[in-house]
Amino acid sequence: MRRVWGGLAMIGLAGALAAPAAAAPLTYCAAMTLPPVIYLDKNLKPAGIDVAFGDMLAKHLGRTVVWENVDFSGIIPALISGHCDAIVSALFIQPARLKVIDELPYMYVSQSVLLRAGAPKLASLDELSGKKVAAVTGSATNIQLAKENDALTKAGKPPIQVVDFPDNSGALQQLQFGQVYAFTVQYETAVYYAQLEPQNFEVGIAPFFKVPIGVGVTKNNPQEPAMKAALAAMIADGSLTRLLDSYGLASDVLPPAP
Known about the structure:
This protein is of the alpha/beta class. About 30% of the residues lie in helices and about 30% in strands.
């Protein structure tokens, strides 16, 4: 079952960009299991960097906001089937996705590896050869593990045994109980869990694979031009940089378009 939250995004400086005259709510699909990027707080309300970003985007469009919580593995089908207007959920931009949806880039993220507390640090992913490693289906780290396995196979080494999960919760549980050796996940999330539960987890490798993430919209979406213009305005006027800086992530903002 999907959980839905509504919130007010007041008209901002770019209110002229609002597309529908009736200012219908802007509905976002998100997998709220990736703190501090996007998650449910102690009151089960949407929170995190992506929530603040999504609200800011809606403010520029003069729209109200509704958040729908869906499994990450089903987030693109939910968009295509019309359950939401856009995806705001740390969605890594990749060619396979761009064949079925459009993505409007708004920031960078990096990847990392979460280990059990006390485990030896890793110098590179190939040290996971032959080990069970958790990953979220369709995530950037999942793709990186597939590439690493290609390299390991060519080198004659055992591949990483990738165990896929629909979201973080199952992967974290399996890591905590030693059922997997590591969990490959977004760097910001790895740091969050290592700080939240240092007795259980540690960040096991330096951040790698810095990639842009984007707002997902359906192909030929009439709202896309207004969203693009709003994003460009947020980058150009520095408001997106200030937002990311408030989370200690100013270096992850995209440069202004030339």
